[in-house]
Amino acid sequence: MLSLRKERVSLNKKRRYSLNQKGVILLIATVVVAMLLVLTGVYFSGLITEKGFADRQRFILQATALAEAGLSQGVVELRKQIRTDLKLNVEIEKSSAVFEPYTDEDTADKDSLDFLCDFAGFTRTSDEEVTLSISSLPLEAGVSGGYTGNIIIRKPKDEFGDDIEAYSPMANVFKFPYQFIIEAVGTVTKTTPPIQKLLRLVPGEVKIEDSDVRVGEFEITVQRGNFARYALFTFHHRAPWGATVWFTERTNFTGPVHTNERFSFANNPGAHFTEEVTQHYTKARFYNNGWSILKDSESNPPYDVPIFDSGFSRGVDELNLESAITQADLKTQALGDMTEPESNGIYVPNNGTSLTGGIYIRGNSTIEMQVDDDGNAVYTITQGGDTKIITLDYDSKQTTIQTAQGTDTYSGLPEGVDGEGVIIYAKDNITNFSGIVQKDSQVTVSSEKDIIINNHIHYQEYNEGPPVNAEGYTNLLGIISWGGDVRIGTSAPDDLEIHGIVMAPDGVFTVDNFYSGSPRGEVTLLGGIITDYYGPFGTFSGTTPISGYGRNFVYDARMLAGMAPPYFPVLTNFVSFDDGGLDRKPVWEDRG
Q1: What is the mean pLDDT of the chain?
Q2: What's the pTM?
Q3: Mind giving me the DSSP string for 355-389?
């Protein structure tokens, strides 16, 4: 019995030990499972957190990209408002009185910011700025969000912190300086709340080619349009007798070119144009290896491939260059209070002590411009058997006239009634014209008939280039044949150089006997040409020059800054352009 009892006790102990061991194992298993659950939770929580963080970063990048798109649209919209909308609104105006209130000293009624509101659709939001709102263009499918923004225009400040106002540096020219800010907010709407990013383009200085350049600023110029704005303008782009005049590889134009008809191109490579070329007709003419064709195209490969650095636009509107200055106006300026003479001669109107007009010539004449040893402008004019040497002293504002009979000195210069600049008016042909335009001189030589150039015409001060230019200098020449042609004579040298704006509203600018002799090099013109028809300069066979000159016409960019020869015909309407500041990228600023 005792043995049986002992066995039972031992069995119970074993059972209790087994149960305790199972309990420990279960407890350990429970703890392990709990730990695994915790670790799993932590792991998945981390994954969720990382995904949320990654999603947020992705949405922030999307919002930034949207804001950048808004800034880009803002730049495009600003250029459009200034270069298209404002330009069109300015061009319908014909009176300077429209623009004068924006540039006078009284800014309480109107100022440069009001000008943008009235002509470019901006809204005045405070005394300090005007704005134009922008919003999202249609976005790609799957993009949840968009952008909004503002173009903000202010007046720039001078070194003392004062506003720089609009001003008028000369008659019929108005300057509007501005500073701009473009801000855009990109918004992604996939989250609650939405994620936003604000970026701004702000004025500042950047380093461009080792120079500090202001960005975020621009200036608009409004001026009465002038004929000198073109490197070439023709009403009819053909010879007066109907013959085709071709642009070949001997033709190079620096500056805007336009015709109210169509241009004709030959050879590959062909003519080279650095600025935009425009024509009214939709089709251009191509030589096509001798079998000319008309095509709505800028080239005719492989035979005819002109080079357009800034494009060739066809089918543009005709330009009606209605002039606000007439031939009679120039004659009046030259005669002053003098009655038009009936006999041939060289006349310098005066009251006995002072000049009262310009220089008037009746009968065929020759004119040579010179600069004497004292730096004075000298005009040697011969008409028939009469020669007058007219010397202009710009320092003393005196004019000396030397003839075979003696010398007379007058106060003043032969700058016409209004004093714009030297005006020479010839009733008949100028059979020989050449010389140097003195550095302080702005001159217009006009004739009712032909003007023949037989030697170089240079500005005293200019930059040889390349390309040749007169930037920074004031000497300027206009050559106008009202009822005839401007012609390069047979005695002119090879590689002739002419500085000046040439105009023949009822004729051509051409070369005498262009079809005979040997090739004579190029005519390099620094200026522009405005003619009714397009005069031939030479002949060619294929790509080989046969006779006459090639053309190397370089536009005088000073004309776009408001310059024009004195009493030169100007348009009845106004034009506007900016200084290129809209093309320089402003400084980026992240506003969070």
Answers
A1: 87
A2: 0.71
A3: B-S-EEEESSEEEEEEE-TTS-EEEEEEETTEEEE
